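Data card: per-record layout.
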Amino acid sequence: MAWRWLLAAAVLGGLAPWLLRSVPVRIRVAGSTAFLPLVLRMVAAYRREHPGVEIDVTGGGSGFALAQLQRGVVDVGVSDLPRAAPRLVTRPWARTPVLMVVARRLGVTAIRRSAIRSLRGSSRPVWPGTRRPVIFVERPYGSGTQALVERWAGPLNPRLRPVILGANGLVAQVVAATAGATGFLDASDLRADLVPLRLDGVTPTLANVAAGRYPLVLTARILTRARPGGEVRRLVRALTSTRAVAAAGRPLGYLPP
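The structure for this 257-residue chain is written out next.
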């Protein structure tokens, strides 16, 4: 009987390296919904080249990603918040114009920064040249888009009751369906029934972003804990390739940093 146990041990010993190699590696990624389309596109390309790696991607927002990363729940975070993240390694990644959008039927195509600040500071804002009240669709606290908008356009009057939504796609949907509504979203979520307003006379094109002319540009960073190893390091290296970001991002409305 002893020889049977020895044979079984030898077979299992020979299989052990194969079994270890066959166990898939799982990497968890979370972060900014503004940059989620770019993350998904680049991760899909990485999966095709590395079929043994499983990558779970969720949005949740920049604040969510920072918290989950610091707790060890996710391996890679994407943040477009301007503040630094303690104990995390930060790498420049991508940028995109932030569009102020309205429903096409509203008839508004351009606005000045001074007018936006006036509307946001008013207790009863009305679109210039119309009697249509302005309904603001905002992002929640912890959103990099919201932080950028408030720095540039000012905070809302505390008497106003904005619609607060957690994702760019929802902002686009509600603005398109609500008379007088306006919100800010990234270029990849622009719909045919929405108009991106010219801000101070500048159209939100990638050429104007690259030239530094367009005033509202959101910049994202890739974050990890300490110095990641193995597959996480390889994934981060692939995500932060300037050439890869340019190839995957331009069709969606993103540029390298």
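Known properties of this structure: Residues 46 and 224 are 18 Å apart (CA to CA). Residues 1-13 have pLDDT under 50 and may be disordered.

See the next section for split statistics.
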